[in-house]
Fold this protein.
Amino acid sequence: MIAPNTLTFVRYLPPNERASVDLTLPLAAEERTRSRQQHQLPDGRFLRLHLPRGTVLKDGDLLQAETGEVLRAIAKPEPVLTATAPHALDLLRAVYHLGNRHVPLEITTDYLRLSPDPVLQSLLIQLGLEVCEETLPFRPEPGAYATH
């Protein structure tokens, strides 16, 4: 059942569309992959995401409610492992091994970031990477088949 005074966001706005943002919603990486969810705002109102199935939100994406309000989804800080290496080839090898395990992964030229997992942390250390535990926004690659 939908609570009264619920804002329902149903439309993804293209990245280049100019819009005045009414609300900001911090979402963890896994939450940004769910097209149907509900959240309570600090003022007691509820907001509901009712997006097309398969929608994967990126940090900064804009959504529009049925009533016109605009929401910006942002990456919420969450526990992550950040792996660095002295050589780019070491990072590439790690990407290969993690990719074989279909691990959600944030990839940059300087580091890899993934959700905490002691087995994967040990693997990365065995591959010669330095791994540290942090709490930061996690922005994994959306994958080849992700859509808005």
Observations:
- The mean pLDDT is 91.
